[in-house]
Specification:
The chain is α/β, with parallel strands linked by helices and 293 residues long. It has helices at residues 11-48, 50-67, 77-93, 172-188, 224-229, 233-236, 250-257, 262-273, 288-292, and strands at 101-109, 117-126, 129-136, 140-143, 150-156, 163-169, 191-192, 196-201, 206-209, 218-219, 286-287. Helix 1 packs antiparallel against helix 2.
Amino acid sequence: MADTRLLRDYPALTRHRAEQSAARRQRRIRLAVLLPLAALLVTSLYAWSPPAALMVAAIASMLLFFAFLPGSTSVDPGALAGIEGEVATLKQLLRLPDAYRIVNRVRLPDPRLPNGERELDFVISGPSGLWVVEVKNTPGLVQVVGGARHWPLSKRSGCSSCPSWNAMDNPEPQVRDQIDALKRWLLMNGVAAEPKGVICLAHPDVAIRDPDRAAYPVRVPGQLVQTISGTRAGTSGAPDLSAAGSTPWVPLLEPLREGRLDAAAQAAASVARTGGRSGPRPGRIRTASAARR
């Protein structure tokens, strides 16, 4: 099982589950109160007036129907769908070997964005190097078109058996920017590495056509372990950051994981202003192999 010591919780998902649990308790209470009252009232009225009893039974049925509707949630549906996709992906990533370490919800400084930071769904370190995993939770048949602005998407429309045609944004530019942000932050902290990217389509009702036509592998959660652990550092050219128990980038990401971005954000802004010339001096940059020596 992969190392999960740096995993963070999903507060929105925790809140959603707590709200749904409270709603289920309320429905059980309403059932315990309304159902006996409705049965008693209908039985009593039936002896006096069967038509009135039938009318009350119909009204009681409607009330019970609305009483048992699922409760709403304060979590945005779009954000909740994304989190559910990340949780489904994490369940599969946990099957990685012990030599791999998983960090989720990694926040990196990026002065190009309005809020000054970029969030990566997963960053994974192991014998095959560094991996950035971007998760999308879109259902349907996805046609991968490398370099295009959008990927065609086909899915069932409502209750009909006819497909509806749509499109999803191509996640390749997003993954590219995430990898650049990670490389830049590692360089500013003296570690030279070449992260690799993978796109995970996590919805259980997704199918992928031409998954290898993109700049990065496009996989479903069940294929991630093979994709990540099946590529060795010796064949990919990526540094082996986990040999001898050394993962020099993990202590660097831990402050970002806790949200302490001030100093890092200032450094990133300085690099952006100077076109990337103000990082650590070449003599101070460490590759993973140099760090182990």
